[in-house]
Write a structure and sequence with these properties.
Elements (H helix, E strand, L loop, with lengths): L13 H12 L5 H12 L3 E5 L2 H15 L7 E5 L4 H9 L3 E5 L10 H5 L6 E5 L10 H11 L2 E5 L7 E2 L2 E2 L6 E5 L12 E5 L2 H13 L5 H17 L6 H5 L24 H8 L2 H18 L7 E2 L6 E2 L4 E5 L3 H10 L23 E2 L5 H9 E5 L6 H12 L2
Parallel strand pairs: 2-3, 2-4, 3-13, 4-5, 5-8
Antiparallel strand pairs: 1-9, 6-7, 6-11, 8-9, 10-12, 12-14
Helix pairs in contact: 1-10, 2-10, 3-4, 3-7
The protein binds pyridoxal-5'-phosphate.
């Protein structure tokens, strides 16, 4: 195969790239438009931009901590299988992590285990919504309300996914979006925190005023990254970055310190342009997601992840579980050029850097098994029907 598919990256159109360069030359700032678009789509009153999604999550959790400074609540419940950045954000906000194991059939928090948690010191629970698949957010919302805690709806991977017509990121008290590489809307980096909670909005607005801009050098690096992303995401060019190990593409490492800085305004027009065609981007991903879903019905060697009722996934990737780690290794080593990839290599319960920040149950067997067996298939607009058919055949031969 001459082509090499990326696991997740969304293509940036030539017109968007050219428009972005023009906007930089004319020093046009689209941050306000970007915020209005995000708030409009999610139906939120307040929105704040940060240099990264994890920066947004850290600032939001720091605001939650400040709100609770008069009591002894300092724990945040997070699913044991989610992005490591979520754990870094909790730690950087000065809070403790209480893990909840997941239901391997849905990748949502295991409801039975969740209901057994001691909520007396909990301030918030964070959803995961991995790969654009909505968690059971109505259940989490109800539980959070009953327990008097906040729900933070992490839509970093699920922008434009919906439950009963309601957008992800808008459940509970506050939401997070990411504009990082490989997301549905990307400006290489960037994140948003949105909320309808007046007190949180006020605290966040004060925090945002104090943020430092990224240094000129860092902005230059981000500029170069956008240019590389634009030219090298194409399947005929992606082989090069994918085979150069120093790019660190696809690697997941735990980051101890989360930088909370201003979103570089020069990136805003790129994100705005994609936001304006978010439905088109999502449609192409969901078409591919449903194609895999249908074709893999009869495959007995894999386990599909269930889509919850009433949900409209955004399918940032198509996740499934294979039999074991060995089978996965063979698949990844043999067919990487099809964009078949693993995901987070460990559950949060197995990441040593997090251990000292955990409270409550530390064993999360379902999340540990999922970490060993999960495989994701690409759904982005560079994926062709012939690619999907080949991937489906590869999985049939397992
Ligand atoms: C579920 C989830 N939450 C938060 C983040 C953090 O976003 P960012 O990469 O923009 O810092 C990510 C990043 O991929 C994520 O997948």
């Amino acid at each position: 195969m001459m082509r090499h598919l990326s696991p997740t990256g969304s293509p940036i159109k030539f017109s968007e790239f050219a428009g972005w360069l023009t906007n930089i030359a004319t020093r046009r700032n689209h941050t306000e438009v970007l915020l209005q678009l995000a708030k409009g789509v999610l139906g939120m009153d307040a929105g704040f931009l940060f240099s990264t999604g994890r920066g947004a999550m850290t600032a939001l959790l720091a605001a939650v901590k400040l709100q609770n400074s008069g009591n002894d609540r300092d724990e945040v419940i997070i699913p044991a299988y989610t992005c490591y950045s979520v754990a870094s954000s909790v730690i950087n906000a000065g809070l403790k992590i209480r893990l909840c194991d997941i239901d391997p059939r849905t990748l949502s928090c295991d409801e039975r285990q969740l209901r057994q948690i001691d909520f007396s010191r909990v301030v918030a629970i964070v959803s995961a919504n991995l790969y654009g698949l909505p968690n059971d957010l109505p259940m989490l919302e109800k539980l959070a309300k009953n327990e008097g805690i906040l729900l933070i709806d992490d839509a970093a991977q699920s922008l434009n996914a919906k439950i009963d017509g309601r957008y992800l990121g808008s459940f509970g008290d506050a939401g997070i979006l990411s504009l990082d590489k490989g997301k549905n809307v990307t400006s290489i980096q960037g994140g948003l925190a949105v909320t309808n909670h007046p007190a949180l909005a006020e605290l966040l607005s004060k925090e945002v005023e104090k943020l430092d801009p990224l240094s000129f050098k860092r902005q230059l690096i981000e500029f170069v990254k956008v240019v590389i992303y634009y030219f090298f995401l194409n399947p005929y060019a992606y082989k090069l970055p994918a085979n150069i190990s120093f790019t660190g593409l696809g690697e997941t490492r735990f980051e101890t310190d989360v930088e909370v800085s201003q979103y570089p305004a020069f990136l805003s027009s790129l994100a705005t342009a994609q936001f304006n065609r978010i439905d088109q981007i999502t449609q192409s991903r969901t078409r591919h997601g449903f194609y895999y879903d249908e074709a893999l019905q009869s495959n007995q060697s894999i386990t599909k992840i269930d889509r919850l009722a009433q949900t409209e996934p955004a399918y940032l990737r198509y996740p499934l579980l294979v039999h074991d780690e060995n089978q996965r290794r063979e698949l990844l080593e043999g067919f990487r050029e099809y964009g078949i990839s693993a995901s987070y290599p460990k559950s949060l319960s197995s990441v040593s850097e997090i251990a000292g920040h955990l409270v409550g149950e530390r064993r999360c067997p379902a999340a540990e098994t999922v970490a060993q067996q999960i495989v994701t298939l690409p759904t982005h607009a560079y994926v062709r029907e012939t690619d999907m058919n080949r991937i489906i055949d590869i999985l049939a031969e397992l």
